[in-house]
Specification:
- With 134 residues, the protein is mostly beta strands.
- It is built from 1 helix and 9 strands.
Length: 134
């Protein structure tokens, strides 16, 4: 999987007449890996659904400037010394901090600089959610 690209409205651009494929987004939360449908527009909506269907135990966030920043996702919880970091492979420089990145299996993941309600979940995007030191 390389990077995610998306067109207007956060949807993959399809040629006229093509059947729209059912996309899958891969989410790693701590040591748990999920393959989820891209029926939800944002990571916030997807995480909210994952709690509702019992995939994860909890999802709590605080709102700052209209963006949702999580402080609990499943067993991951912010403390005084560690915080939740969301890495993704979306190639949109409005959605990441270029200086904070990880390489996993040859793919570059950058830390999100926006809230979960601004992060799209259309395939083939991948998210890695970890606790890291501040």
């Amino acid at each position: 999987m390389s990077s995610c690209s998306w067109g207007l409205g956060g949807k993959e651009v399809e040629e006229p007449g093509d059947e729209e494929p059912v996309g899958v987004v891969k989410i790693t939360i701590g040591d748990k890996v999920f393959q989820k449908s891209t029926e939800f527009a944002t990571l916030h909506e997807l995480l909210t659904n994952m709690v509702a269907v019992g995939d994860i135990a909890d999802y709590k966030y605080e709102e700052y400037n209209g963006m949702y920043y999580p402080y609990i996702i499943d067993a991951l919880q912010d403390t005084d010394t560690v915080g939740i970091m969301i890495y993704h492979n979306i190639e949109d420089d409005n959605l990441y901090s270029s200086n904070l990145m990880k390489r996993v299996n040859g793919v570059t993941f950058r830390v999100a600089n926006v809230g979960t309600n601004y992060l799209p979940t259309n395939a083939p995007c991948e998210y890695i959610i970890l606790l890291e030191n501040y």
